[in-house]
């Protein structure tokens, strides 16, 4: 492989440590390793130039190296300013066969603690192939890479500034500055890139939501694979992943005893369900807030109190947002919390908590305790502890989901990339989920590791239910 000359990571000397952890992760990611085995020597992604924007962690490292083994030419950045694991980033640049002096891995532009300006610079670098080639696939988490390309193209074509709400992260001015700068030398750069893209595979609820909105407005110029709504993604990563990594993040950040504390979880979707279990597992008394009567009823029947934030804001010890919606914890809520209440978000964007309002409120004192932990003191003297500046705390304050569950998510990602790269012309410019037989296959690939022995149906039983012996076993409308 050629030597990688373009990249920006924190410290290349962390690569050896990163490689050791990548090796451990490979053992825990049987789905990805099975794909490597299955496609050995076949290179189904040969010719694919994959532009990836997804938390640059160890687990993502195994994903990236799987894409490379399958023949893809890959560039990467993180989809969050705090989520990069610097040893993972360095190891991926060095690659499995390179050295720090002669890295032969993948160009990565990511480090933990980027500024917003640096974040969009990294996104732009990730999308810009040095030899004049362009990406033809996007692998996105939250939709920022897709948004950057499409808004860039729009900006070039009609000269108008796309609406600020096109960027859910509320950082529009910074994006625009980056886009304008990127156009100094190439006036139609993003229009060309947008034309080149065969498709995007999207990792998370929030990114998928943005894609469906684009389709509704008739603005999606290529097909998209909704990886999030594979059952083996959202019902595992969002649920069991958050069950692992939420309290991991809170404890690494604060070391606070969770047993006996009152914790409010806003939202009881997949992430909320995992978060509530995570806190309950530590002995916290968990209260849920919801807008959806079905989810509220689920929470109540799971034994959780369901309340309005207003009614519990002054008495709870800990607040976690999990909604993918904005303005969930507002300034007026933060003002009423008890002294040293802990506040954090595990949804995709930081606008679930009114951070901008907190930062600009008169008379606030911000004391940084350590990276990604701040004490904010209000003029009346009481304080709150804010985790990861309101950005997803499981990746900001800890290391995100563990390998095994990310193997489920990323096996779906690789399958989606192969399908879109090889068959994009068979799809309309809409959002698709992977077929159920592939979803079941992802699950199957993870059974052996856990010692699961699956029961096999007889032909008579299969006929009785009207399903094939080898699956798929459920209709598409089945909800698990
Ligand atoms: P979901 O749609 O299953 O759940 C969100 C829930 O929030 C829904 O039940 C909705 O009714 C509720 N909600 C919306 N507005 C509300 C309000 N004002 N008050 C109370 N509840 C409200 O979505 P999912 O899959 O749980 O994802 C949630 C967020 O987490 C998304 O932004 C997603 O991208 C992100 N995510 C983060 C992960 C992480 O590792 N940090 C992993 C997976 C997803």
TrEMBL record:
Top-level taxon: Bacteria
Role noted for this protein: May play a key role in the regulation of the intracellular concentration of adenosylhomocysteine.
Family: Belongs to the adenosylhomocysteinase family.
InterPro entries tied to this protein: Adenosylhomocyst_ase-like_sf (IPR042172), Adenosylhomocysteinase-like (IPR000043), Ado_hCys_hydrolase_NAD-bd (IPR015878), NAD(P)-bd_dom_sf (IPR036291), S-Ado-L-homoCys_hydrolase_CS (IPR020082)
Limits of the S-adenosyl-L-homocysteine hydrolase NAD binding domain: 238-400
One GO cellular component term: cytosol
Residues reported to bind NAD(+): 204-206, 238, 267-274, 290, 325, 346-348, 394, 401
EC code(s) of this entry: 3.13.2.1
Cofactor(s) essential for the protein: NAD(+)
Record GO terms (molecular function): adenosylhomocysteinase activity
Pathway(s) of this molecule: Amino-acid biosynthesis; L-homocysteine biosynthesis; L-homocysteine from S-adenosyl-L-homocysteine: step 1/1
Protein name per UniProt: Adenosylhomocysteinase
Location in or out of the cell: Cytoplasm
Entry-linked SUPFAM superfamilies: Formate/glycerate dehydrogenase catalytic domain-like, NAD(P)-binding Rossmann-fold domains
Binding residues annotated for substrate, in chain numbering: 57, 141, 203, 233, 237
Keyword terms: Cytoplasm, Hydrolase, NAD, One-carbon metabolism
A Pfam family the protein falls into: AdoHcyase
Top class in the EC scheme: hydrolase
Reactions catalysed according to its record: S-adenosyl-L-homocysteine + H2O = L-homocysteine + adenosine
Record's cofactor remark: Binds 1 NAD(+) per subunit.
One of the GO biological process terms: one-carbon metabolic process
